[in-house]
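Archive entry. Fields below.
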Amino acid sequence: MIALHNIHKVFNKGKANQVDAVNGIDLKINDGEFLVIVGSNGSGKTTLLNLISGSVLPTSGTVNIDINDVTDLPDYKRSQWIARVFQNPVSGTASDLSILDNFRLAAIRTKPKGLSVGVNDAFKKQVKEKIATLGMGLENKIEQLMGTLSGGQRQALTLLMSIMDNCKVLLLDEPTAALDPRSAEVVMKTADKLIKDFDLTAILITHNLKDAFSYGSRIIQMGEGVILKDIDTKKKSALKQTDLFDWFG
Amino acid sequence: MDFYLTALLQGLCFSGIALGIYISMKIFNIPDITTDGSYTLGGAFTGVLLLHHQPTYIILPAVILAGALAGALTGIIHTKLKINALLAGILVMYGLYSVNLKLMGRSNLPLNGIPSIFNLVNWITNPNQNTLLILLTFIVIITLIIGYLLKTDFGIAMRATGNSETMIRALGVNTDRMKITGLAIANALTAVSGYLITQYQGFADINMGIGIVIVGLGSVIIAEAFINWFKITYVWLSLILVISGAIIFQFVLAFTLSVGIDPTFLKLVTAAFVLLIVGIPRLSFNKSA
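PREDICTED_STRUCTURE:
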């Protein structure tokens, strides 16, 4: 469970370029819920996601993951619960490292990175088997540099990396925004499958209203740093795709 | 021939700087010029401790620790105070000048007649060849340690820190601490170069570090040319190329002097040479684009 209580985030406070990105949001996301966030540019979606991941710390308010108060924890400490996929494939993977090394880091996301060599034959086999499930033929290229792959392949691998180690919460920040329609579909389907298979709590930010309609169990619309609409599972099944378009009308 | 053997020995002594710059510049993507100061710091520690007849097993750890502290200081200034890495390095390097002078007590410490690491064992009677063997052993051990380090989980996290900071933070790594550690390792290696060169030359000098960063940069850039050329991804091979870069660099300087160029112009020639190896790949790239 993730709980945000009366969260405010102000950038450049007291300066001419002050931005009130998030204005007092209360939000509770239950275990296993797949929340979709929509909203126009500048509505505070990404700031909200960064407040949950810890990349941005709130000006006021509290953030809880289960019973833990994580309000003051930076992102690298919240990684024990949270895995992330970024809008830019370059942000979620290290280009100059092999696919294998990227997976090694992901496999020890919640653990200390010690002075032993973790990439051994057993680990290689495990990674190959995981990657084979994508059906992209990448399992024979694990020694290749991540930078040699396409954006779609990298996003799919980032998704897979998130479940290499214990994962409770998956944050998806416009994961398909930089991809062509076909790759975008593969990535979204992979994400949806992983979320269901591993019973993850997930949050997806998207500008694609079709995706927002097709995926997820709950949908919220943001604007001006507040939640405008909150459609839970019951109401979402009654929702029509055209309703979503009307929100932005 | 002896001329080139000297260049080879110097190149091996400078491998520490080359590996240090490889770590700060290539792995962490941080332009660190604490180098000039930490190199002299290594030399100063070596000189002073040798004059006090300390054994190698005390001197070497002391040198490594001193270099690491200098690097860590640059790292702390850069990450905690959010000061540009270049400026942080300059500040520490500048401050170290006084520290080094205080340590040494005067600007030059001759070590005539004091036994050094190169007198530790006598495998071969020819002193130059003996020095070569000792240096090679030393460098092989360092390369093995660094190569192993880069292969470990910690090492992969190190390489990822310079490559994709957002990713590695999301994977649970404190990037500030990682950068501080990285700069500490880099400058410890640089100090080891000061340790070797001081014993090889038989003196420590307050000005020995001036502009030495270019030796490291040049070596790494030479190595990078080969790494890109042959698309090398193996860590060990990259490290060996970096050390080869340091040796090639000294060979070029030795060659320059041997063809009779005025030693006054040595630094200008060095600068031009580094410019050349940086510039040529870019020029040819522009043509093909």
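CURATOR_NOTE: Residues 2-208 of chain B form one domain.
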